[in-house]
Amino acid sequence: METLAEETLAAIGRMTVAATDLEHLLAWVGTDRTGGDPAPVFARPGEPLRAARGAVEFAVPAHREDLIRYVEAAGTQLALSQAALRALWKENARRDPATFDEIAARLVRLRAMLGELVESHLQAQR
Hints:
Layout: H1 6-32, H2 38-43, H3 47-56, H4 61-86, H5 97-125
């Protein structure tokens, strides 16, 4: 792999933090139904998404479809972030910071939308 410019490394960092924050929310979603601790779920790669996919199936009907849609969108965006990162080891891969910042922005927006929906879902259960 080539040496990356500081700006690209910073953009990769922003993308990685955004992806991790989204995974943290997914871990919480995945364990909320059982009142469990999200830490063990969060600690295992891939587990937050799997757990969230299982949990949203039991959401109240008013929010179920939206939660499923957002969790699946999270899976897509997380996969894209991993693909962009892994592509750095390919010859002639895009290494510009804009690529990683664009993915980070989508991850941040999705995390905010999913967070709002989860909060709405929790209020509906009270």
